[in-house]
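Key result, reporting period 2: structure in, sequence out.
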């Protein structure tokens, strides 16, 4: 199993105003003369923790990370206005142009895989390669599985905590019930719902549940952005129409070198979605990690991702 590269600091940080309302925070680390790669984080609303830098050889990569609208160090915090999939696709292009990068490799997991597909299908000429993990394509069956019925059968103990803020008579549509609370004018109602929503994902992301991860997901500032933005996207069907658009448009990226890494026991983004992507796009290398769930920090997934970044760096 691979160990992460040593921790390091960015050599460049800044803010880019992408609309009248939103400013995104970005950073660059590694080698300023290295091959450019952009990391698209999960959620939506998850932000970029510093340990993400450690998946990339600092001698070979010029790593670009940024916090998507409304989360991490981007401003305004937890903002839902002007926050759609296509706003984020435009932000990625604005950042590429701002940093004077002609082409880059795109690395994304979970929601980051969704955004990677949307971006690469919109701007295929800007993508030298794709490294995708924990495939999520924001379809109703995927959202229903995790937030209404399905994952609940595997984690009934964590599910019990997830549904606590919602009265029994509203539990037939948990997405709507949560959206009402996450957009409530009452800060306490918003926070209670945000923590329950966020902790549910933190409780189910690894094959062997991790208390530290669960606690991190429950931190107030993280939970509010994470839950509000996720629910906003999901209630709006990801702003993707038709919902199979990312599968239907595979021909646009078919010739781009790609690796798909998927945990066999991923409960957050079940393997069926990765399998359907693989069937539509057999040209992409498809790796199933037999002893892993959803988290990129699980040993098998970490190893496969680092092997993929090393391989792409040498192309």
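The corresponding designed sequence is given below.
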């Amino acid at each position: 199993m691979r160990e992460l590269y040593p921790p390091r600091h960015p050599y460049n940080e800044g803010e880019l105003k992408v609309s009248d309302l939103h400013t995104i925070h970005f950073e660059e680390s590694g080698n300023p003369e290295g091959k450019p790669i952009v990391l698209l984080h999960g959620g939506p609303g998850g932000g970029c923790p510093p340990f993400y830098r450690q998946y990339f050889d600092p001698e070979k990569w010029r790593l670009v990370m940024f916090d998507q609208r409304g989360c991490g160090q981007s401003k305004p915090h937890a903002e839902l206005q002007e926050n759609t999939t296509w706003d984020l696709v435009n932000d990625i292009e604005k950042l590429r142009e701002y940093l004077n990068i002609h082409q880059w490799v795109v690395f994304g997991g979970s929601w980051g895989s969704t955004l990677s597909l949307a971006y690469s299908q919109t701007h295929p000429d800007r993508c030298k390669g794709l490294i995708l993990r924990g495939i999520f394509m924001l379809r109703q069956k995927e959202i229903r599985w995790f937030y209404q019925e399905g994952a609940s059968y595997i984690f009934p103990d964590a599910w019990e905590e997830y549904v606590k803020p919602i009265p029994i008579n509203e539990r037939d549509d948990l997405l709507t019930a949560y959206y009402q609370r996450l957009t409530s004018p009452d800060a306490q109602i918003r926070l209670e719902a945000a923590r329950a929503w966020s902790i549910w994902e933190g409780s189910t992301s690894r094959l062997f549940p991790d208390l530290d991860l669960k606690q991190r997901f429950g931190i107030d500032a993280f939970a509010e952005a994470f839950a509000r933005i996720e629910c906003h996207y999901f209630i709006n069907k990801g702003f993707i129409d038709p919902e199979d658009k990312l599968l239907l448009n595979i021909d646009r990226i078919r010739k781009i070198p790609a690796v798909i890494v998927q945990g066999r026991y991923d409960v957050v983004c079940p393997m069926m979605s990765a399998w359907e992507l693989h069937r539509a796009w057999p040209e992409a290398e498809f790796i199933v990690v037999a002893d892993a769930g959803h988290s990129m920090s699980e040993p098998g997934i970490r190893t496969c991702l680092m092997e993929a970044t090393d391989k792409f760096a040498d192309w």
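DSSP finds eleven helices and eight strands in the chain. The chain has a mean pLDDT of 97. This case is discussed further under Risks and Mitigation.
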